[in-house]
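User: I'm putting together a teaching handout on how sequence relates to shape, and I'd like one worked example. Could you take Testis expressed 264, ER-phagy receptor from Perca flavescens, show the sequence you're using, and then write out its predicted structure as tokens right after it?

Assistant: Happy to. First the sequence, then the structure tokens directly below it.
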Amino acid sequence: MPDWVSLCVVISLLISLVTVAGYILYSGLLTDIIVLTGSPPVKKITFAYKFKEGPYKNCRQLFKESHSIGPKLSCIGVFYDDPKKVPGPQCRYAVGSILSEGKNQADEELLKSYETSGFNVFSFPEVTHVVATSFPHRTHLSVLLGVRRVYPRLEHYIKERRLCAHPFLQIYREGQIQFMAPLARQGDFYVPEVRQVERRLSEQEELHSDSELSDSNSEYSSGSGVLLSDSRGTSLAASSVHSVPIQDQGDRNNRGRSSRGTSFKDLDWEQTGGQQAEREEPLHGDSNQKSLEAPTQEWWGAVGGEE
């Protein structure tokens, strides 16, 4: 191979590497991540959404569908479960577009278009305090980088301060991905379908408990008198475990993802602006602290799709 051909190949490879590196850097690879506790990035919002159960990676199609109806609207995703603790098929999420914010009114034509396409409409209140951060949304790769880098920081921040922050919202607007989790009125951020799922799971759990108790009594009643006596004690013990009344299944699930036992009132506020901030720093081997590495592995290929 002539020398000039080899030189051209080397130059082409160098150009390709520089281009790829520049693309990754532009997408936010080295962006400084600052986690704040303070006012939310959005006011009261009304949004159109579709609710789904399943792996979070499947939500990309909903983002695309919602964005195609209202391309000028901000997209929003609400994620209710931690994929590390909840099986993929049972993870719950809502994806859609923000129709109005604050005192503004939703566009009636857009509203009808979303409803015709099978979207529901719901409103989230404006809360006083949230845990929040942002990440640039410049390319499709920005979504992957943002989710991988932001959620470990949020997890560390919330655990370190023992906060109760849930669910997690992602808002795509003005070239930014806004990540936030409310510290108050969390129940108001759960769309009605979430409650329906919780009631269904509660009913299934009760049916399973009743069936297990019935099978246990039937099995042991055919044995000797001594065995029957012993088995009743065992059966009652099992029943006491499986048949505990579920007083508030919703609250239990609401806290399941990120409950830390304290609220924003326990924070030591800084003098400037009443907000706490934490810059991205390397995490040093604390084996007792779990990161959101596993959830981000599930989410990276899904969230976003606005561009």
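A couple of points you could highlight for students: The mean pLDDT is 77. The first helix runs from residue 3 to 27.
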